[in-house]
Design goal:
The complex is a heterodimer of chains A (about 220) and B (about 220). Chain A has about 220 residues and is mostly helical. Chain A has one domain (about 30-215): MetI-like fold (Orthogonal Bundle), CATH 1.10.3720. Chain A contains 7 helices and no strands. Chain A has helices spanning about 10-65, 70-80, 90-115, 120-125, 130-160, 175-185, 190-215. In chain A, helix 1 (about 10-65) packs across helix 3. Chain B is mainly α and about 220 residues long. Helix content of chain B is about 80%, strand content about 0%. Chain B is built from 9 helices and no strands. In chain B, helix 4 crosses helix 5 (about 90-115). The chains are: A mainly alpha (about 220), B mainly alpha (about 220). The interface between A and B is large, with 39 and 38 residues.
Chain lengths: ~220, ~220
């Protein structure tokens, strides 16, 4: 076999390979964003209730996830699990780290949302006979959501893009797939452009939709 | 648990790590400065409304904001090779981070400029101020107030993103850590030490920015 036949050019079937990889990028991001957002809302609520005590404990812990590069977190956790006797796949380790990373970012956003609701509005709700949870569900949630939806969308888009870093653990998502193809085809520019287009196609619609939602909600 | 932690190699290499931490700071600050200059230009171009050049600014901003920073780094690292341009690892990181910073900062600056009501410019001019005076005394101080906090955030992101350099072979803090970890096989210990150094760097930046803001925005 001569050297030239080892490398084959970019083919149509490679697009399917990339599409599969895009699906895995989407899978890990959707998992991280959905679970992380739920967890983050709970953390945000805890921070807003516990104030100083919350800042000193939970706030400090969540701050670590925001102050250490994600790539370091991923390598650290991926190498930590075997130490305590678990062998986890790159997918599991990546998802767990991304979930906590997302929850740390969402917690700050959720707290901002809760703080954006005027205290008098909440007092009024309680005076009308609402329970604490009713106040949270029917007063704080709708008002707070509108206040912080753009920030949340920013976090979600950030996580979608940051999921590319799971490739360092060996999970074959979009970016890893591009590296595999580049090694085979030796056409880095073309493939990086195609992968960039995939990422763009995933994230651009989300930013447009949230921008529209934001505008529409302003008139209610 | 049959793993024994070995911290001695980490302590022995601590000076190297701290030195690499300085390299991280250096590249992050350089990328931030380039990002501020380029971002300012992009924001002004985007607001200028000149169709022939606006598309360039919009394209840059949307590409920088809607693709992963790592992809942008790979583009400068491997993608440019298709045109016969081969950058050194340092330049790859610097170009990639500057490109990304500029895209985000352009939108920050645009928001800042939009926050100053245009009537204030007219008022300043009718009071007899020159265009330069109007910019220096009326617009810039107000814009700075709006963009100061997002810029601090971007500086933090710049430091965090610089860790991607380890994937293109530049030995700043993360790259140096990977190098030392693979030499000694103490992966967990080295990366934990590095995580702590990053945490300290980020806290220093946030603390420094807070001190500076007290000095800058006293009234």
């Amino acid at each position: 076999m001569d050297a030239a036949s080892v490398f084959t050019g970019f083919q149509f079937s490679d697009l399917r390979f990339l599409a599969d990889a895009a699906g895995r990028t989407l899978l890990i991001s959707v998992l991280a964003i959905s679970i992380g957002t739920m967890l983050g809302c709970v953390f945000g609520w805890m921070l807003s209730v516990a104030r100083i005590a919350g800042d000193a404990t939970l706030g400090l812990l969540l701050d670590v996830f925001r102050s250490v590069p994600l790539i370091i977190q991923l390598i650290l956790f991926y190498n930590f699990f075997p130490i305590i006797g678990f062998n986890v796949s790159p997918f599991t380790a990546g998802t767990i780290v991304l979930v906590f990373y997302t929850s740390a970012l969402v917690a700050a956003v959720a707290r901002g949302g809760i703080d954006a609701v005027p205290l008098n509005t909440r007092r009024a709700a309680r005076s009308l006979g609402m329970t604490y949870w009713q106040d949270l569900r029917y007063i704080v949630w709708p008002i707070g959501l509108r206040a912080v939806l753009p920030s949340w969308a920013g976090v979600a888009l950030g996580v979608l893009k940051d999921s590319a870093l799971v490739s360092v653990l060996g999970y074959v998502e979009l970016l890893r797939a591009s590296q595999i193809l580049i090694t085979r085809t030796q056409e880095p520019f073309l493939i990086l452009a195609v992968v960039g287009a995939f990422y763009f196609a995933l994230s651009f619609p989300i930013s447009r939709i949230t921008a529209r939602l934001e505008r529409r909600w302003q008139y209610d | 648990m049959d793993y024994t932690f070995h911290w001695r190699p980490v302590f022995r290499k601590l000076p190297d790590l701290l030195q690499a931490g300085l390299v991280t700071m250096e590249v992050a600050i350089l990328a931030m400065l380039a990002g501020v200059v380029l971002g300012l230009i992009l924001a002004l171009v985007r607001m200028s409304g000149m169709r022939s050049i606006t598309w360039f600014a919009v394209g840059w901003i949307e590409l920088a904001r809607n693709t992963p920073a790592l992809l942008q780094l790979f583009f400068f690292g491997f993608g440019l090779g298709a045109f016969g341009i081969h950058l050194s690892p340092f330049l790859i990181v610097l170009c990639g981070l500057s490109f990304n910073n500029a895209g985000y900062l352009a939108e920050t600056f645009r928001g800042g400029f939009n926050a100053v009501p245009p009537t204030q410019v007219k008022a300043a001019r009718s009071l007899g101020m020159t265009a330069t005076q109007t910019y220096l005394r009326i617009i810039i101080p107000q814009v700075l107030r709006v963009v100061y906090h997002p810029m601090t955030n971007q500086m933090v992101w710049s430091v965090l993103m610089s860790s991607l350099a380890m994937l293109v072979g530049y030995r700043e803090l993360a790259g140096e850590t990977q190098f030392l970890a693979s030499k000694t096989y103490r992966i967990f210990e080295f990366f934990l030490a590095t995580a702590i150094i990053y945490y300290v760097i980020v806290k220093l930046i946030i603390g420094g920015s807070r001190l500076l803001s007290w000095r800058l925005f006293r009234y």
